[in-house]
Amino acid sequence: MGDYSKLAENHEPEIQALALSPETQAELNTGSDGLSSEEVILRFQRDGPNLLPEKREKSCLWYLGYLWGPIPLMIWAAITFEILRDAWVSFFVLLILQFINGIMKWYQDRGSRTSIKKLKTSLLPQTYVKREGRCEQVASKDLVIGDRIKIKIGDIAPADLVLCEGSCEFDLSSISGESFPVKKGEGQVVYQGSICKKGEMEAIVLATGIRTFLYKSKQKFTVKSEKTSFEKANFWISVSLLIVSTMLVGVILAVVLVRGNDILESLSICTVLLVASIPIAMQLVCTTVLAVGANTMASKKTIVARLNSIEKLAGMNLLCVKKTGMLTRNDLTAQQPVLLRRYTIEDIFLSAGLASKRTPGSQDPIDKCITEYATQKCRINFQAYDELEFIPFDSKKKRCEVLVQNTRTGDRFKCTKGSPQIILAMAQDPEIENEVTKQVEELSVRGYRAIGVARTNKDGKWSMIGLIPLYDPPREDAKDSIEKAFQMQIGIKLVTGDQMAISKETAKLLNLGDKIYHGEIVCFDTTEEQKENLDSVLDHADGFAEVFPEHKYIIVKLLQEKGYKVGVMGSNVNDVAALKKADVGIAVYGALDAAKSASDIILTYPGLSVIMAAVHEARKTFQRLNNYYTYRIACTLQLLLFFATTMILINPSKKHCNQGDCDKVPNTFALPVISLVIITVLNDGTIISIAYDNVAANTKPYKLSLSMILWNSLILGIIPYVSSVALLLMAIGHMDTNHPNRILKFFGIGALNYGEILTMMYLKVSLSDYLTVFAARTSDWFWSSKPTKLLMFSAAVAILIATLLSVYWFLHYFEWTDEKSDFPSMKPIGWGTAGFVWGYNIVFFIFQDLIKVFIHKQQQVRSQNENYYLSSGVVDENFLVFTGSVQSKNSIVTKRSMIAANED
Ligand SMILES: Nc1ncnc2c1ncn2[C@@H]1O[C@H](COP(=O)(O)OP(=O)(O)OP(=O)(O)O)[C@@H](O)[C@H]1O
């Protein structure tokens, strides 16, 4: 294939510079009908799909990777300690823990990889290709060298291309860094990834997949990669817990060793304690939670371009909505036109039809309804005109234009159709200004948007023919969705390129408010006073109409400066800047590839309800993450604090004992390694099921508060910790049959030997660990939201196994090394004591939930004053007039529309 190093050197992408082999050159000589099916198959078989290869791991090695890393290494260390001290039961359980952990990580990782792959697949672009004379849409990955494709405004070059006849402007910023669009024409090369900013033409595929310049020069598309607050939180939580755990465990180890305990056993228990406390799987669990959320959103017609976009969506508190397709159906019907001077209905539909795309598939809804009306109702024959040059619709000009020649008379003239204020400005005819302005207003009151139509006369001067009213009914879901957005504390501002009058009518109709301003108001910010006014307009406005792409960008920027988290909807190449600038760029249904690639969220269905459903799901996803953080930190806290307190401060040998294994009562209270390992194994299942849990979405935009998470975790962790220490103290006192603990005696618990105390504490710690998940998953009472079956099941399994183990503790039958150990082994406690531990746990669980609800209510009262959507300020009418943003009563023409009208 081509020698790209030459291209990179001289930066002059001429095809000659490629030094193509004669065979490749021959393959590029595709005729006007495109390749034949046989050729396509042959070339595809030879070159493979037009994709950049992905790194593939060997599955066996891949799994082994899960048994490696900081935590697996710690487990391997603990396993080694257990071998050295002949503790074979703990050894086997640790080994099982290692493999279960590995399998779970693999399973989670596979799940999130599959979801990400699915997302990527759903984002694969499509291209119009000509094969055997037929134009068809194919996945860009199926393109082969020599394919004749169509490239138009908003498309991203799907492969390296040689351009055919005509010219287009391309944005090469992702390839060469050039910031201004570059005009390219016949015979020139355009690399994969370049964005077509203007025009439409055919091109031949020059290189695909690994043969493209993009791949060879090892460049990648630039992706927004700033860290989200959750990624930062992940990092800080992990690091903080790591530091706290390591320090506490270090202190514990030192104290235990100073007291003369067995080194290996102490090392082993401290290592396992560290394994249980550090949330190394945090990143993985978060990815799984996000991937599950992304999958659910995809099933609800919203594709998330990057997983971290979910966080942005959950935190969005202001949404700039488009009118067409979001608030209205974009299902247009043309109506009886308004004619100026002596023009006829045929004149207006002939010019409008000529200035429209007429090939089915390439038309937008405006072109479609106008050509249908022209051919079906006015019987216009477009064959009588040759199209010499067509300039497609462009939001910067807000119109399209055509140069045609009458095949019979040879007369040449231009036709244009577009926004009425632009067409009126082009006509430069003061006599019709009042009339057109009045008609546009009247049509909008009746619910019609107007399209202006003009043609050139013999002198080449533009003459406005009239207005075509288009009926675009509001979407059924629009009103409810707006209402829902307000309930979800998301401010809605209409930001539309459409005409002011109809935008106002639509906004009013949908209860969006009637304070709609011209987009150009935002370009006016010189003096402090004017800035203040502008500030007020921004808060107070229900929308902006007649906006041009640059206005969209400035509106987003100014709103962000005021502290809003702004979502912006876009569909075409001119929206790219605003989409990239927004906190959440949303490509609407049918958006062009350029807009999609600049967005965080891609809608695959029209209407506002889709995005509202996506926000709802995004907030649920973040509630899950919040719950996970809270639960995970609470678990670490209760375990660490319990072990630190009991191992450092409690000396059971000082208590009087006359029951059972008194000679073995140690000077340090520590749960055996095996019990800690079992707690950790069983906890894994509960943790993973949080990713799939049922949660209630927040009624407010999500705002990550680490302090709130830590505070909640502290409450949830401290109560089980205190209750565990209290139970331990009661149990140790109960070793003395002469002076048993009064509370335990009251509940009919007989004197306990030390092995039974260990088991009792194992059950206590396990149960409060597993029960805490039910308190952590809601901010209201634990019964206020039903957990998923998966969560119930995993928690039930963990609880049941812990209970059965405690009642029967059959593992001690295998503990043949019991005699060697300094620490006595656990003993079965029977149903009576287990029942008491259960009751004790339930009482404290309810207490834990009560305190949690109380604290949440306090937090709610405090945050009630936080207003996410401000609506204040008074706008000075003089300011509006002064800035030229209030048009004169007699004309819809504004300063910006004059500029657009005179643009080439
Ligand atoms: N194919 C077309 N031919 C002529 N005029 C068009 C065409 N498409 C759109 N327009 C005009 O441009 C205006 C919309 O401009 P633009 O597409 O830039 O706005 P937008 O922000 O995408 O608008 P919306 O909020 O309605 O989606 C329409 O009101 C219409 O007057």
From TrEMBL:
The keyword Membrane applies. Pfam families: Cation_ATPase_N, E1-E2_ATPase, Hydrolase. This is Plasma membrane ATPase. InterPro entries: ATPase_P-typ_cation-transptr_N, ATPase_P-typ_cyto_dom_N, ATPase_P-typ_TM_dom_sf, ATPase_P-typ_transduc_dom_A_sf, ATPase_P-type_domA, HAD-like_sf, HAD_sf, P-type_ATPase_IIIA. GO terms for cellular component: plasma membrane. NCBIfam families: ATPase-IIIA_H (TIGR01647), ATPase_P-type (TIGR01494). Residues 16-87 form the Cation-transporting P-type ATPase N-terminal domain. GO terms for biological process: proton export across plasma membrane. It comes from the Eukaryota. GO terms for molecular function: ATP binding; ATP hydrolysis activity; metal ion binding; P-type proton-exporting transporter activity. It is found in: Cell membrane; Membrane. It comes from Blepharisma stoltei. SMART domains: Cation_ATPase_N. It catalyses: ATP + H2O + H(+)(in) = ADP + phosphate + 2 H(+)(out). Belongs to the cation transport ATPase (P-type) (TC 3.A.3) family. Type IIIA subfamily. It is a multi-pass membrane protein.
